[in-house]
Amino acid sequence: MAYSNVLSTVAVTISAGALYVSWRAFRATQQAARAAALRVHVDTDEWEEMVIENVGQSTARAVRGWVDGVPFDDVAYLFRHNSGEIVVGPHSSVSIGMALHLGIKPPRLVRLEWEDDTGRRGEYETSVT
């Protein structure tokens, strides 16, 4: 009788653990689906500009960026209308003009970090050649 009680207790404990792990995975998946997801590319069709696009479901706030390891505000060939906080709404984009001339090389590596409405901190890094 005691042996079956021990097995029952072990089975219930394992089931409870599996339920908890499944719940955490489901919650993480749901949160990721609601998060902001930033991407960046360089557009040189008409104007030279770096485009930061939010393909996620949440607003990206306090977006910070680096070009080849240098913060956006310190990159001489980037120009923004204001140097305040960058905010990118869901399914929208922000363009930052670039003055690439007289031998200035375009950016090679861009890194972005941000916060969103889910409380998660996001980051993205890519080559933009």
Structural description of this entry:
The protein is 26% helix and 38% strand. The chain has 129 residues and is an alpha+beta fold. The longest helix is centred in the first third of the chain and has 33 residues, at 2-34. The chain starts with a helix and ends with a strand. It contains 1 helix and 9 strands; from the N terminus they run H-E-E-E-E-E-E-E-E-E. A hairpin with a 5-residue loop joins strand 1 and strand 2 (49-54). It is elongated, with a radius of gyration of 23 Å.
Helix content: 25-40%
CATH superfamily of the largest domain: Immunoglobulins
Count structural domains: 2
Question: CATH topology of the largest domain, what is it called?
Answer: Immunoglobulin-like
Shape: elongated
Order of helices and strands: HEEEEEEEEE
E-strand count: 9
Distance between the termini: 71 Å
Low-confidence segments, given as residue ranges, are none
Query: How much strand content do the residues show?
Result: 35-45%
Q: What's the architecture of the largest domain, going by CATH?
A: Sandwich
Give me the oligomer status: single chain
**Category from helices, strands and their pairing:** alpha+beta
Largest sheet: 5 strands, antiparallel
Global mean pLDDT: 83
Radius of gyration: 23 Å
Separate helix tally? 1
CATH C-level class of the largest domain is: Mainly Beta
